[in-house]
Amino acid sequence: MTEYAQKRRHPRVDIALLVQYRFGALEELRTEYALNVSQSGMFIATSEPKPIGTRVFVQLTTRDGRHFLQGEGSVVRNADGGYAIELVGFDDEGKAVLDALVKEALAKLPKSPPASKP
Question: CA 91 to CA 93: how far, in whole Å?
């Protein structure tokens, strides 16, 4: 488990979601994929890193098109291929939708067998 995985408050799952975001009020929306998502954050795939602490406005639509979520986030980590964003400005409904997406994805993961005792 990585140092960052140990610090996470919520489990992350690999869900490719199309995300639109911008860093300034007058900036055009950019469109990228979130490679993994949790109730409190996401990792966006991009070749343009931003400084830690940079505020970002985020919009995403669930795959089934039933939910349109928007709120604010903050860049918390840069890594090869993108950056992690902590979602700090999503309302309770948005958090509940993200939580449901994560729980649904976790339920689809294969169950690992119990560890054998020596």
Answer: 5
pLDDT tens by residue, 25-49: 888 999 988 888 887 889 888 888 8
DSSP class of residue 117 equals P
All domains in the chain, ordered by first residue:
3-108 (2.40.10.220)
Report which of 51, 53, 46, 55 is spatially closest to residue 27, judged by C-alpha positions. 55
What pLDDT sits at residue 1?
44
Spatial distance between the Cα atoms of 97 and 28, rounded to a whole number of angstroms:
26
**Burial of 87 from C-beta contacts in 10 A (0-12 / 13-18 / 19+):** buried
The Cβ of residue 104 has, within 10 Å, a number of other Cβ atoms equal to: 11
Residue scoring higher pLDDT (63 or 4): 63
Percent above pLDDT 90 for the chain:
23
99 contact partners, CB below 8 Å, separation of at least 6? 10, 39
